[in-house]
Specification:
By secondary structure, the chain is α/β, with parallel strands linked by helices. The protein contains 15 helices and 15 strands. A hairpin with a 4-residue loop joins strand 1 (44-50) and strand 2 (55-65). The longest helix has 29 residues, at 105-133. The termini are far apart.
Length: 435
């Protein structure tokens, strides 16, 4: 019976990948609890395990006395002789050899259940420790379930979760697909640890650069900062630790072969690789690429950097929905304000397409009224004559355009900031500044 019990426990621990020494400690504790339950908490005993032979030996130690007051700690001379075959004197120790069958099947089953629970607890700790040590590292797993837009991934027989919020927009995975992600968070729960992985975290891009670019992995090129709009665009600042190595060239590779591998992994995310510089002015100029800047100055009162650009470069510096300046701000860590060379502010009439409708919009443009400023500054009677539309309707249109123009003119002071929210009409807006 001893052999069967030990073999059963050993096989279970092997399936759960429990260390041999840890297994022995668990078994000693489990059987120790079994002995305490039968003989009392004060009982003196020893559990000896021989994993190689599959043996379990139990020894109960009690003092020999004339009159027994506590059977868990004491035994009389007659009983001591029956148990050991020796004539022991009062004051000596009686060491009784116990057998597993003496405890009964119920006690053994309870011990096994206790063992299984202890193994589960240790398994949880091992999983938590394993993935906590892997924080920020890439894991490769297999998608086995999609639930509420969250992906569940199997990695080394453990379940990892890729929430919808950590997935790159536009990506589609199906059951059985191999997937790479970075370990972002590990939480302890009542069940197995909750391991969250991510494909949108900046660390994922950093680790991909380490995997695909040997110079980054070897430390010859350092990644200084990363800013991402996952699945759309990213900027990454790199610095060479060796004057003979061109950091940007090494990251991009011959004909872009290195960077293309990373781009494909990130669902065709457009990546700008930038040379890092400790000079904020130069770093900002590079971060705002591909826009060409006129000048970069630090404004003491606002604690921000004012960037002067030509009218033609303003929309490029700001980017669609303010994306370029937003990423540059994240990458550099500085507050950046864009200013146009001209002081004239205007809004293209195309911006009012929804309010005007195609027919009215085309009429304005055909007559040469293609911007809000031109319409506002034109005499109303001349405007009505040129367009030949209902004056009351025209008056409402002019008032609407003027209101939008005035509001946008005020808001334009913040539109060129890296803190501007996506979706603002930034491409054709002037950025005002007290500087």
């Amino acid at each position: 019976m001893n052999h069967e019990i030990v073999d059963s426990f050993t096989q279970l621990s092997r399936e759960r990948n429990i260390d041999r020494d840890v297994l022995i400690n668990i078994l000693e504790e489990v059987f120790g609890m079994m002995l305490k339950k039968k003989y009392g908490m004060d009982a003196k005993f020893e559990v000896v395990l021989n994993m190689d032979k599959g043996d379990i030996e139990f020894y109960l130690e009690r003092a020999v006395v004339e009159v027994v007051a506590n059977s868990a700690l004491e035994v009389d001379k007659k009983t001591a002789k029956e148990l050991t075959g020796e004539n022991l004197e009062v004051g000596e120790d009686c060491v009784e050899i116990l057998h597993l069958k003496d405890f009964g099947r119920r006690s053994v089953v309870m011990a096994k259940q206790n063992f299984i629970q202890r193994v589960k607890d240790i398994e949880k700790d091992l999983i938590f420790t394993e993935y906590n040590a892997m924080m920020g590292d890439i894991v490769v797993g297999e998608v086995y379930q999609l639930r509420n837009n969250d992906l569940f991934i199997i990695h080394n027989k453990n379940e990892l979760i890729l929430p919808k919020s950590e997935q790159i927009p536009g990506e589609r995975f199906k059951k059985g697909d191999t997937i790479r992600a970075v370990v972002k968070e590990v939480r302890k729960t009542s069940g197995n640890p909750y391991v969250i992985v991510s494909r949108t975290d900046n660390k994922f891009m950093e680790r991909l650069f380490e995997l695909e670019i040997p110079e980054v992995y070897d430390g010859l090129i350092q990644i200084k900062a990363v800013a991402r709009d996952p699945g759309e665009r990213a900027k990454i600042a790199v610095e060479s630790q060796d004057d003979r190595i061109d950091a940007v060239g090494a990251c991009v590779g011959m004909k872009g072969v290195r960077i293309h591998t990373i781009v494909r992994e990130l669902n065709n995310e457009n990546i700008d690789v930038i040379n890092y510089n400790s000079d904020p002015l130069l770093f900002i100029a590079r971060a705002l690429a591909p826009a060409k800047l006129k000048k970069v100055d630090f404004d003491e009162p606002s604690q921000s950097f004012l960037v002067l650009v030509s009218d033609e470069q303003a929309s490029l510096a700001i980017g669609k929905g303010g994306q370029n300046i937003r990423l540059a701000t994240k990458l550099t860590g500085f507050d950046i304000q864009i200013m146009k060379e001209t002081a004239e502010y205007d809004i293209e009439l195309e911006e009012f397409k929804d309010e005007l409708g195609d027919e009215m919009l085309n009429l304005f443009i055909e007559k040469g009224y293609n911007s809000a400023k031109i319409i506002i500054e034109t005499n109303f009677n001349k405007l009505a004559k040129d367009l030949d539309v209902d004056r009351e309707e025209l008056l409402k249109i002019v008032e609407m355009i003027k209101t939008e123009y005035d509001n946008a003119d005020v808001e334009s002071e913040n539109i060129g900031s890296g803190n501007a929210p996506a979706g603002n009409k930034t491409d054709n807006s002037e950025i005002k500044s007290n500087g």
